[in-house]
Structure to design on (211 residues):
């Protein structure tokens, strides 16, 4: 059983996916953390983030491991945990460059498809590309301003700057972040975190909840 939860940047995908996964008693998988980890390693190595062959060669010699858990994903490179370093401003600025590289997207997709189900998968193209046969698909959205206000509660940055960055990110992600035709689209703007989670749980098909 696989449930996909896609959406725009800062739409609450990770928090929602974690809540849905805990309710179902399964892990959740964050594809975004793999893109962020690839970006971090590229930055640390001084690579041009547009250079997909160099980035992939570095990933082959510095393999990443995603640890999917219901309470939160962790990313490791050998014995070093990268998780806490993946949500910095410099990684934010680089990850959109890395995430549009077809070669890197194929590398991330292969890591995700190798994971044993059941799980809840969150990202931008889980329902359209990575797991098109998922048992249930959801897509989260909200206005850039609402997302900026939420993110400002997590980082010491002002709302207008975050909102401008999110608008740029939306444009960069526009192609790969489109909802699947059979996804349930949820505007999280007027909902609390628990409200979004309960909305998804209420719309899961019986074969998913009983799996």
């Amino acid at each position: 059983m696989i449930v996909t939860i896609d959406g725009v940047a800062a739409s609450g995908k990770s928090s929602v996916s974690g809540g849905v996964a805990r309710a179902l008693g399964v892990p959740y998988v964050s594809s975004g953390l793999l893109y962020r980890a690839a970006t971090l390693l590229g930055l640390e190595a001084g690579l041009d983030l547009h250079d997909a062959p160099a980035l992939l060669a570095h990933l082959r010699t510095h393999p990443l491991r995603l640890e999917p858990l219901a309470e939160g994903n962790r990313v490791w490179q050998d014995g070093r945990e990268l998780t806490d370093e993946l949500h910095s401003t410099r990684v934010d600025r680089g990850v959109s460059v890395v995430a549009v590289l077809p070669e890197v997207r194929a590398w991330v997709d292969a890591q995700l498809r190798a994971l044993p189900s059941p799980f809840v998968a969150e990202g931008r193209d889980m329902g359209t590309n990575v797991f098109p046969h998922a048992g249930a698909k959801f897509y989260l959205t909200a206005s850039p301003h609402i997302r900026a206000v939420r993110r400002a509660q997590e980082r010491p940055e002002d709302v207008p700057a975050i909102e401008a960055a999110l608008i740029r990110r939306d444009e960069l992600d526009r192609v790969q972040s489109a909802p699947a035709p059979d996804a349930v689209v949820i505007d999280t703007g007027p909902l609390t975190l628990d409200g979004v989670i309960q909305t998804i749980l209420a719309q899961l098909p019986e074969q998913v909840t009983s799996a």
In short: Strands lie at 2-7, 28-30, 64-67, 74-77, 80-81, 119-123, 136-141, 184-187. The chain has ten helices and eight strands. The longest helix spans residues 159-173. The longest strand covers residues 2-7.
